[in-house]
Amino acid sequence: MDDRPVGALAAGSAVRYAYRSGRLDLEAKSIGELQQLVSKVVAATKKRSVSVIIPTYNEEANIGRLVEAVSSALAGFADFEIVVVDDASADGTPAIIDALAFSGKVAAIHRQGIRGIFSAIMDGIRAARSDVVVIMDADFSHPPLKVAELLRKLDEGGFDLVSCSRFLHGGGIRAPFARKFATVLFNRFIRFVMGGRITDWTGGFHAVKRDKLLAFDFRHPAKWGEFDLELLYLAGKAGLRVAEIPFIYNFREEGKSKSAESIDFLFGYAWLYGRRALQLRFGRQRPKTF
Ligand SMILES: Nc1nc2c(ncn2[C@@H]2O[C@H](COP(=O)(O)OP(=O)(O)O)[C@@H](O)[C@H]2O)c(=O)[nH]1
Ligand SMILES: [Mg+2]
What we know:
Elements: E1 17-21, E2 24-28, H1 31-45, E3 48-56, H2 63-74, E4 78-86, H3 93-102, E5 107-110, H4 117-126, E6 132-135, H5 145-157, E7 161-165, E8 172-174, H6 177-194, E9 206-209, H7 210-215, H8 226-237, E10 242-246, E11 248-250, H9 258-262, H10 265-282
Parallel strand pairs: 3-4, 3-6, 4-5, 7-10, 8-11
Antiparallel strand pairs: 1-2, 6-9, 7-9
Bound molecules: guanosine-5'-diphosphate and magnesium ion (MG).
Magnesium ion (MG) binds near residues 139, 252 and 257.
């Protein structure tokens, strides 16, 4: 850029620029210097951009409140979009998310003829606009306030993936006994099988760089939280910088748990998660099936 001022100059007078905008009050000797100052301030005050991906299936009692809660947790802190991916819920969810979409609060994706949390999350990520995505459930089991903390950790620590853990100091599980028991037991088993430093392999609540995640070669079609197993496994294998922060998991108060409905509890989890852990750790990777 040509810094020379255009126009006549009184001999000996110094060129000065003052720039005021809002609370900014900058001074510079040239437009080039001023431009540098402005872009520094812009970079320092730029909000993190994030897409929050929420899969829904019959979440009419939760989704509206959750969108409000996530939005207020991120207001003033991030440039965010909330992407809700619904698989033709039979309740009021599709209409609720359309109304939210109409008022600019969410991007609503409706899928017909296809179901599943994992593929819903992946489709949401594909349609996301930001370089960082947060993955969370619609039922308040993942506390909305933690989203800001996930992002702060990601940015301040320079991590590629930050995951919420129930098994770090400060974390925990508020759930019916059988569910808590199953979670604790299988997490122990999975940690033993998988090795490494990850403390929670099935929490389902993460912030991750979108391009890194989309580059993963997922080979196991996941039904439930085994998605997390492969995500964290592939992150480790790819040498991503991964960190965990503690969170308290709350079992849903409203609506029905789809996993509790569809898999026989203890044995169902043992089979799904345990098998996937063993497959990932010791098996030959199967061909991609979805
Ligand atoms: N799009 C979509 N979302 C789903 C499906 N099944 C469950 N979900 C959502 O995935 C999240 C976790 O499901 P949830 O029923 O709470 O399972 P649980 O936490 O294992 O009991 C919630 O936000 C559900 O609404 C599905 O088939 N498609
Ligand atoms: Mg749940």
